[in-house]
Amino acid sequence: MSDLEVFRAETRAWLEENCPAEVRGPIKSEAEMIWGGRDAVFATPGHKLWLERMGARGWTAPEWPAEYGGGGLSREEAKVLASELRRIKAQPALNSFGVWMLGPALLAFGSEEQKKRFLPEIVRGEIRWCQGYSEPGAGSDLASIQTKAEDRGDHWIVNGQKIWTSYADKADWIFCLVRTDPDAPKHLGISFVLFDMRTPGVTTRPITLISGKSPFCETFFDDVRVEKENLVGTLNRGWDVAKHLLAHERTMIGAMGEVAGGRPVGQVALDAVGAGEDGRLDDPMLRARIADLEIDQAAFRLAMERVGDQVKAKQAHPAIASMLKYYGSELNKRRHELLMAAGGADALEWESERSRGGSAARDWLRTKANSIEGGTSEVQLNIIAKHLLQLPGA
């Protein structure tokens, strides 16, 4: 057997022994998602155990260096782990902005002390992060941020406001862009800092969306003390860190197009519409649309793998994340449009037990934000036109 075959056999055996029954199968509700953090809430004891076991092995961040708590796996081994997790239909052991966004930025720009302090806690799900980027006057034009950090010697005093801060009301810490040189051009004079959300002067206010949920928040900073040791990268060069992180955020949002955690659209449609005499979905038009979606999802999954290999080999174009973000967002929106079509009038129910609290309609409405968060679709298309296609006038 090759080394990779041995790794697959060992991984399969470990997962069979250590993956609890409660986390095998599609995620039925948002309550089953594992976010970790100091105030973590778990749907079942099995969900808590799953995080503990995967975190201890470093497999919540399988390709991160083992010295920082990661799995230390090669790209090929990480693919094997992912395929074995899919085989047993395991739910993600950890959903984490720390893993998806901050961790890669710390690995690239953080000091050795910051890596050793924060990365192991992120891997084990002990610290939950939120992102302090957008402001009321700085959305797509992110470099226009006005939240300021005043130098007080060994620390800064931060004042300002952020908006669309996902899960800020549940986060332990925030990674935040602040303006440290108000006289510099807008892309300069920005710094990237970290601080505890329990620091005096930090307040959050959830924003209720059309879906009825409140994943986004307004976040206010009033004379918040931020220690100088929590500066990531170089003072006034936070835009470099921000761009690096945005590429990972956009790839993360795009990965929604893979839809690994939910029930297959075809199964949902079969339950709602029923089967014909031949055993197939009794709606040929809907059946064709689902087939188109599944083909596109499979192609997108392969594209994600290819880009991952290119990133590992340092051959990926910096703008490729915009392509993944745009296409993955559209795929996820298409998926939920089909779920609504399959459910018909029943999918429009908002509060009944049959509709699981209106989850189909609420989730469908939530996907509309996919083409806004992380940079609007229009911004992504402009980046693709200018940097990938090099179109004249772009």
From TrEMBL:
Positions of the Acyl-CoA dehydrogenase/oxidase C-terminal domain: 236-389
Keyword hit for Oxidoreductase: yes
Domain of life the protein comes from: Bacteria
Domain Acyl-CoA oxidase/dehydrogenase middle: 130-224
Chain ranges of the Acyl-CoA dehydrogenase/oxidase N-terminal domain: 45-126
Keyword list, A-Z: Flavoprotein, Oxidoreductase
One matching Pfam family: Acyl-CoA_dh_1
InterPro entries reported in the protein's UniProt record: Acyl-CoA_Oxase/DH_mid-dom (IPR006091), AcylCo_DH/oxidase_C (IPR009075), AcylCoA_DH/ox_N (IPR013786), Mycobact_Acyl-CoA_DH (IPR052161)
Protein name: Acyl-CoA dehydrogenase family protein
